[in-house]
Structures
1.
Amino acid sequence: MVEVCDLWTVILSIIVVKLCHWIYQWSNPKCKGKLPPGSMGFPIIGMTFEFMKPHDAIQLPTFVKEKAHRYGPIFRTSLFGAKVIISTDSGLNIEMAKTNHVPGMPKSLARLFGENNLFVQSKESHKHVRSVTTQLLGSQGLKLRMMQDIDILTRTRMEAGARNGGLDVKETVSKILIECLAKKVMGEMEPEAAKELALCWSHFPKGWFRISWNIPGNGVYRMMKAKKEMMKILKETVLKKRASGEELGEFFKTLLGKTEGGEEKISVESAIEFIFIFFLIANEATPSVLTATVKLISDNPKVMQELKREHERIVQGKSEKENKAGLTWEDYKSMTFTQMVINESLRITSTAPTVLRIIDHEFQFGDYTIPAGWIFMGFPSVHFNQEKYDDPLAFNPWRWKEKDLTAIVSKTYIPFGAGSRLCLGADFAKLLMASFIHHLCRYRFNRITYDCFNLIFTVCCQNLYLHIRSILFVPIV
């Protein structure tokens, strides 16, 4: 009996020693040099729950601010089971964006995007996808292929909102975006399939990027279920069109491409996977940012007055026939103050990491060694730097006066990321925002309800319901 007790004592002692050694190794990761300061938190869980806490949508996450104040502009931690370097240093963020090309993401995002998605495949695949996407969403593509559709859809939704007495901004923008992209990417869809696809997006769980464990009932579980249904709809649409000889969308045909031997450059399955991710990213970011923008505008009467003055000039400077034809590219380019508002809104709402990378090689940054294999998260703290922006928490579009309004990235402005992973939808997002603001400014409206906060990687703006009344100005006949 004594021998059995001694044996159990030895076993338990070994387990405790191993456990303590594991915890020590977790808290003190190996590195050839000196790691940035920080805390790795509990094993596996790390600091995830503290990082996940919602925060004000126009401020950096509380977690990041507190840790940066304690450790400095660069620190280490563990999130979602991964080792992470977090940076609020703009120079390091830009350098990482330029020299590291593989996107870093939590496991929940990796699972959603798929292990072999085109975002993380070879440089050749990524180059092909970027080239095709630029044809659709670059300035020339927007001018020739998207401008009219965005204008018609926005005007139609705004008129419907006026007839109904109001509209939900985020829901309306999401519908405009999906309808516009679906038509260009997939071609004409059957009404039932289009309705089902829109329904899937409306049911896609908020906060799907938060917990990486696929447990029935949680965000990842609902995310995977929604993804499966959306992929099914997209695939059935493609196969039906191919079987009947119908035209696929121009974007889809170009995406498949042809090699010199006549073979498709990528498989149909890979193309559908990319289109799903393409829709997802577009629908996750732009509607929320535009909702926050409308809120900021409605809170600033002086901004609203200047916007109405600019858009009244555009409408009344054209004949009734010209206005019925819709906005032109020249009209869009003449919206100087609107572009200032958009830039300021993007600056003040960019509180999520805009540079996400896998660190592909070890390097030195000051006294610290940045280890290879870790995830890098670069936050745009420069947007809130008092040395770069006077009163950075204030919404002040006039700070952009006489600046280059077409620039989407600089050392002090990175709402769309930087480097080889610079967001290709930047110009599309700005065009959609300008079109929505233009048509909204033609009406009298007031805000009824609003809720906006930030959840890790995106601004979550909900329940911004506008009561839309009579139209303010009409073209001069």
2.
Amino acid sequence: MGNEAHDQQYSKKLQSYGHSQKHKLKSIMLVILTNLVIIYIFTGPFSFLYHTSPSARDSNSILQELNSTKAQLAATHSLLSELHHRLNSTNLLVQALLIDLTRQQEKQSNNADQNQVSLKVGSDELTFALGPHKLPFGYSPRIGSDEIHLPFGASCMRFQEELNQYMAYDIGGECPMDDVLAQRLMLKGCEPLPRRRCHPKSPTNYVEPTPLPESLWTTPPDTSIVWDAYACKSYQCLVDRKNKPGSFDCKNCFDLQGEERSKWIFDDGGLGFGIDQVLATKAAGTIRIGLDIGGGTGTFAARMRERNVVIITSTLNLDGPFNNIIASRGLVPMHISISQRFPFFDNTLDIVHSMDVLSNWIPDTILEFVLYDVYRVLRPGGLFWLDHFFCFGSQLNKTYVPMLDRIGFNGLRWHVGTKLDRGFHKNVLYISALLEKPMS
């Protein structure tokens, strides 16, 4: 019994000693580990954070540098973010531009292909007339090319059948009598027409014209005209139109001894301006050259010719030989429609006149382009005589007055009156205005 108790007591002491030794061993290991960590911290890569600074001044300097570096890093990060945002925006813009450029190139390529196809199906003479044609001496720096493309109305390609008909003739032979066809193409926007290699039919028994100044008021002989294209076959027939019912272009203007003889002679103080009164608004002799838009048989040019002013008259041959009678009177006709850009350089003409032609039958957009073209060709101080422009009363202040204001003319004379031949109840007005292009 005594030995067993002694053994049990010894076993307990041994266990207690083992536990105590383990505890001490753990403590020693913890101390060693702690020392190792402290040694690593103070001697490793982050040791500078824990070293005692030599002085407070050095510590403050390091702190300031750290703060400055931190601020610079923050600013750099912000700048990088902004540059990244801008780069993304630029990439999107470039992508959009590339897409738009690709579409435009495809559109131009398709248009070019369509034009080439159209020309291929046209006549050989049409293809040859349009070119392009190589310059005999190669590249010209003045043109910027080694070939010439001839002018050709873009709308012509919309009327392929009529255009092919116009270009169907025997080379070197007589041109077909297709004045009506040619003028119809022009009025559709096919202007200028391509040139042709054929001879127009000449009048039979043609005689020399009447000399100036008698020719200004002399009806030309019938032998000066090829009458095939017209309903009338003589000048007398054209003169007699004034007594016939129905509507004709410039119904009275072939009678050079009738109303034409008295036009623009007198100034009534209202809608009817006199030429002498208009010319008097400028220094004598400074109105020398000009244009009459849609000038009928050329009477305005004739009156100005008597005052030593040269006027070119634009007109079409709408069922009458308007260009021919102007030329027979010793004046200069120009066979163009109102849609074509005036073939004059900028700031060159002293006066532009238009009676009846420029009016509300022309679409507003086209009319504004025409009026800007008038402004373009007039020299500074040049005159625009808008003679008996007609429109509805509701259009005057809503459409046409603002349009003229936008273009920028100075007003010298302005009169508005009722157009009585349409009936007073229809409220159709006439406008006569003398406008001046500013000097600067």
3.
Amino acid sequence: MNVAVLLLLGLGLLEAEGRCFFNRTEEYCVCYNLSQESASSIIQCVAASVVEFRGGELEKYVAFPISDLDPSTIEMLGSLVVRKIIFGDLLVPEILLSQVLRFFSYTQVQELVFESCVFEGRGNWDEMADQHLPILSLRFHNVTSAPLTGREQDFSSLSSWLETLQELAVTGSRVTSLPCGIGRVFQALRSLDVAQNSLRDESLMPAFCDGAFPQLQVLSLQRNSLTSYHSVCESVQLLHELQHLDLSQNQLMADSSSSCRWPVSLRIFNLSDTGLDEVLRPLPPSLEVLDVSCNHLHAVDISLSSLKKLFLSHNMLQAAPSIRNYPMLDTVHLDNNAITELPWDEVKLLGHLRDVTAAGNPYNCSCSGAGGLQALAGMGHLGQGWPQDYTCHTPPHYQGRLVKDVPVSVLQCNSAAVIAPICVVLALLGVAGAICLVRSRPGLLRPCRRL
């Protein structure tokens, strides 16, 4: 809205001192409750790269005549360094927005954000036909507007701009559907975030119809009303460029008869906090990152040859999964499970990874249990959380003690390994002594006399 208010400046709304505050260090300017009387204070924001507008009175300008800009105003807008504009807590008449938005073509603004705004009425977007805007990222959070259904013509008028948009977020805004025709407008979109809405399984198939979002690489469906793993899989099959899918915070259920195939391009899959008792199948075949943290998993019995990062924190695992099933793995997180010990054979394999965390587990601080963790820490693999978040649960005399403080010397943990070599050495010394004695006193060994 920086540009929108600067446009108001150009329209003659320069009067009393207002409430804009400029942080020169961060190049961030914020204006509160901007009105006709306070609009002049925005002049201090001309050096900002980010401008935020909170509150204000826009509805009174609906009937204000907005004419084409003169060359000096166009030159001024083009000289601004503003790259991001945030509108918050505003009542936005859509007809005013449709009149002002076209002037963004004279600016260098690349990101436009609306937070906690109410869009009122319907605008006439015909004037935006064939208008190209520099805005590549458009974000809405907690906004209220007319339903998207039946607004395909409005989006068509904006197509010259929207078909170049790269990032779109509509979060926490009670969205229930994404019409197919609207999705087909976003030809260059790389990232779509529709988290914290009310999308259901049946609304996904039309949203991602043939021709919709053809370049989409990142899709967040976090915290909606999705329940069917199979339906989601079928709905995104036509997203051939999809690389990152976030389904976290949905309550997903498996379909035993599912034979759906995920897009082969999918590399990052977030299934955290989805109520899983087991890892759902099928999984994307070329998966590199899998997040199934914050679920109810008791075991993980999957094999993915391409997997590089596996996040399993906050589950009910009693043992770490076998690293042999993931030959490309470099990261595994096992925090806050029910793991009591990391076996030595797994410790040796974990030692080849770059990032291992296993804090908050009820460790059995036997020699092998504590020794394995200390060995991993000694190799520098346990990272953040070591040693303060690694404590003993058993045996009783170590309960509450840090794992790092448990003595695991060879003499204490494997006395047989020390005593046996000592016995062998003593035996050898005894034999050597006997031989020396015999050689020094040959008479000690006399031949038997015959009778």
4.
Amino acid sequence: MALNVFDHDEYRPPVWKSYLYQLQQEAPHPRRLTCTSEVENRPKYYGREFHGMISREEADQLLSQAEGSYLIRESQRQPGTYTLALRFGNQTRNFRLYHDGKHFVGEKRFESIHDLVTDGLITLYIETKAAEYIAKMTINPIYERVGYTTLNQEPTLKKLLPHSPEVPDGPVPVKDGRNTEERLTSLVRRATLRESDMVPKYEKVHNFKVHTFRGPHWCEYCANFMWGLIAQGVKCADCGLNVHKQCSKVVPNDCQPDLRHVKKVYSCDLTTLVKAHNTKRPMVVDMCIQEIEARGLQSEGLYRISGFSELIEDVKLAFDRDGEKADISSNAYEDINIITGALKLYFRELPIPLITYDAYPRFIDTAKITDPEKRLESLHEALKLLPPAHIETLRYLMAHLKRVTDYEKENLMSSENLGIVFGPTLMRAPELDAMTALNDIRYQRLVVETLITNEDVLF
């Protein structure tokens, strides 16, 4: 990936492209064509723009006076259904109109007909005037040029950003209440992140969600304006990257979660958590295992005996609130079963299990192999299906459980017993029927038991 590095390692913000913004400013304005007579059976959620049961031809004649004019009519062929008739490009366009508390003709939902028409006119105008331009937006993106530098540049970058001599091509002076540094937050973070040699470079897909941006926004992939009134694009819920929906399909899988977006430890995607905290494994796994090995390896029934659920919930809240500063020492929780319970709870609450849904069938099939050597070979191949952060966490956990079995005489926990405990915790059947899931339990146990017994050769 090319680096956008200039003299003195100064980062310069990209040039925002104004063409699509200018087109939005030029788009026709909505003109409501009111009905002068009282219409019977007018739906309560429509206003004077409702003209009742008139034909397409009548609507076309009424709207022929001005670009952007619109009305709502009831279908003559399907009474009880409604059509938005809109004048654009010197012709009348008809859209089936729906209402479920909000108005919509497609995916976007609006509080008012006026907003729907405004957004529609913007979209029609831009997609008509700039169809070829939009189709090529993802070519030569600024995202590829931003790259990564080091955190050592961050103080200089923060100092220089507000005074950057780069003059944006787009209408940046718009008074939208944000300064240059705020607008560039996501890109600046990407340009200043240091990837530690000690931490694996896990690949992570962006967690894009449809988003409504307040005030003008530019795509941080292609640098083009994000047009429309609502749902102009998508935002990564983990790192805050803002892009067009079409650009999101070509953004590299290099999400670097921001702790401002990752609010908790439990119930957070594992790869998201480790990238947000820049660690090899989730801190809750490391800290719990270290605490257990420091004072609990000889505890009878380790992992089998449950601690008080209220105190386990306390540990969960402590990690969610304090992260790596959470106190799980014997001073805070004397009973080691509380710590083992918190660790098991962490794995149970993962949205994607440690042994992922995608890999689950392969692991179950492996457990059904009766020949020990062939089963081991198959298990080795199955492990390759796991994401890097998952396999690293699994490796660390299995090495720990192997050490637990070294104290089997004291804690009475064999690899088989640990397989019974951790099988359903680390593996969850993806949408299987109850009977199949029940039958899988013995195979889940066997998978974990084999992983523990052979952790030195499998990892």
